[in-house]
Amino acid sequence: MGSRPVDEVLDAAAAGVHYSTLRLDELNINGSMTGEEQPTTSGVENGHQEPFVIGVAGGASSGKSTVCKMIIDQLRDQRVVVVTQESFYYGLSDEELVHVHDYNFDHPDAFDTELLLSCMENLKHGKAVDIPNYNFKTYKSVASARKVNPSDVIILEGILVFHDSRVRDLMNMKIFVDTDADVRLTRRIRRDTIEKGRDIKTVLDQYSKFVKPAFEDFILPTKKYADIIIPRGGDNDVAIDLIVQHIRTKLGQHDLCKVHPNLYVIQTTYQIRGMHTIIRDAATTTHDFIFYADRLIRLVVEHGLGHLPFKEKQVITPTGSVYTGVEFSKRLCGISVIRSGESMENALRACCKGIKIGKILIHREGDNGKQLIYHNLPKDIANRHVLLLDPILGTGNSAVQAISLLLKKGVQETNIIFLNLISAPQGVHVVSKRFPRVKIVTSEIEFGLNDDFRVIPGMGEFGDRYFGTDDYQSSTPFFCDEKNRVRLL
Ligand SMILES: Nc1ncnc2c1ncn2[C@@H]1O[C@H](COP(=O)(O)OP(=O)(O)O)[C@@H](O)[C@H]1O
Ligand SMILES: Nc1ccn([C@@H]2O[C@H](COP(=O)(O)O)[C@@H](O)[C@H]2O)c(=O)n1
Ligand SMILES: [Mg+2]
Fold first, then answer.
1. Cβ neighbour number for residue 37 with a 10 Å cutoff
2. 84 CA → ligand 2 middle, Å
3. Atom of ligand 2 at shortest distance to CA of 157?
4. How many angstroms is it from 105 CA to the middle of ligand 2?
5. What's the start-to-end Cα distance of the chain, in Å?
6. Distance (Å) from CA 195 to ligand 3 centroid
7. Low-confidence residues of the chain: pLDDT under 70
8. Looking at residue 156, what is its pLDDT?
9. Is 105's C-beta closer than 6 angstroms to any atom of ligand 2?
């Protein structure tokens, strides 16, 4: 396929066609399309783009896991998976267990490198794998393996991940976390006594007998293979930032927030990821779905309110001091897009006492045609800031209809904040292109749209799941097809 200017691609999307072929990773910074036109699924699944494999090595407690977490947090709109070398420790035999203090866990032979290699090769070729689940207390792998799906970015971290040349050769980027030996020892003492329940004498004995010599003999010599050496590990924000930028460039994917300055994705945390994991799970009960969706909606609403203009205000505290703060904007209303947007009304009411909430109903005919069929808006809406509520931004068609109506009613574009739980890049492009001054606040960016214009990975029909009118039950059987898509039986 030849190059197409970026505007043309976006216009095609805005016209309601080609959504399923618009991929952010086809847009390079110069605004041309790169690569084959593909349906909107993972590059891995399409077989045209291998995942980007990053190796993170360094001494024990140098901050490898911390660096990985920081990279993942910054790559928030990419699918990233971390594989740790620790998962591939050989289990100890009964005989070895008796003499566990003589076992060298820092020697390359302590790891099942053949199994690690085969898992990494499969992941690199887009196949899901089962990663062993190693238990540091029993010194054995537990029966239940961890299923790891292919992703855009695979991070392999561990003390000796650069030791075997075959493993190194799978890596697109090699990072060595270089932290002072005293710092590593201090952290190790804290971690092994608190988290692993070991006594300090055992920790120090293991350190001088095995950990320190192995660092010098096996780990430090692999530093020469690193493309990037990060001094001070997780404290080195600049290095992490540069690494993330490089990964994005290599993937041909650019931070949506940089492409669209009107887009605000709330800072992710493991709590937020955990809540998303629950509401995206097809097996989650209606009760749990509502509970966790409500928690996430509340976060999005609070974040959205933070974008309203404030006036400075001074108050006198009970100690007689002056506190200089701000005053909430008063001319505000919420507009929910029926039906799923109504699920966001309670959170808005809980944050803004007595707020007026209007409604818009858009009927979906197929997916190219969307028709506005009902609206009930506050009469003075033109003078208000509007929080537009819809948990899912997919193609952007409904949003365009809703925002067009608000503008027709005299609302200023800059006074509209569109609140979503999840947003597909296609929808973000479409809304931002038409209404660049509308702020979009969301909690996660999706991978894209499938051939039926549904958001993927998504969470199904939000309204049905929230209001309990769906047929997803915890017992609903499903399977993952060859492309790792969930199929209901
Ligand atoms: N920059 C840092 N400042 C303070 N503590 C840190 C820092 N980096 C890591 N830690 C702590 O040190 C311990 C080891 O870090 P971790 O990232 O797990 O190291 P590794 O994976 O290399 O063993 C953890 O308890 C972690 O919270
Ligand atoms: N049963 C085990 C297995 C490993 N170790 C130590 O873990 C360190 C590697 O983990 P990092 O997160 O620090 O990379 C390594 O130094 C092993 O000695 C252990 O103590 N017990
Ligand atoms: Mg670690």
1. 13
2. 11
3. 14
4. 6
5. 37
6. 12
7. 1-49, 76-78, 252-255, 365-370, 471-489
8. 98
9. yes
Residue having the nearest C-alpha atom to atom 2 of ligand 2: 136
What local confidence, expressed as pLDDT, does residue 84 receive? 97
| Structure confidence at residue 270 (pLDDT) | 83
Domains, in order of start, for the chain: 52-251 (3.40.50.300), 255-467 (3.40.50.2020)
CB atoms within 10 A of CB 212: 17
For residue 253, the model assigns a pLDDT of 57
Eight-class DSSP state of 266: P
Q: Provide the b/e sequence for 454-469 (b: ≥16 CB within 10 Å).
A: bbbbbbbbbbebbeee
- Which ligand has its closest atom nearest to the C-alpha of 63? 1
40 CB within 6 A, ligand 1: no
Closest ligand 1 atom number to CA of residue 234: 1
Distance, CA of 84 to chain centre: 19
3-state percent helix, strand, coil for the chain, nearest multiple of 5: 40, 25, 35
Distance CA 374, CA 355 (A): 21
pLDDT at 426: 92
Cβ–ligand 1 contact at 63 (below 6 Å): yes
Q: List strand residue ranges (DSSP E) for 233-368, in order.
A: 263-265, 311-316, 322-327, 332-338, 356-365
User: Which residue is closest in CA terms to ligand 1's atom 9?
Assistant: 63
Q: Is 139 in the pocket of ligand 2 (CB under 6 A)?
A: yes
Whole-complex ipTM: 0.94
For 117, the enclosing helix (H) or strand (E) is helix 113-124
pLDDT for the residue 488: 52
Residue 191: CB within 6 Å of ligand 1? yes
Write a three-state SS string for 59-107: CCCCCHHHHHHHHHHHCCCCCEEEEEHHHHECCCCHHHHHCHHHCCCCC
Cα–Cα distance, 426 to 11 (Å, whole number): 11
The conformation of residue 268, written as its DSSP 8-state character, comes to P
Q: Which amino acid is at 290?
A: I
- Ligand 1 centroid vs 181 CA: distance in angstroms? 13
Contact 159, 210 (CB under 8 A): no
- 233's tokens: 């590990």
pLDDT tens digits, one per residue of 260-314: 999 999 988 889 989 999 999 999 999 999 999 999 999 999 999 999 988 889 9
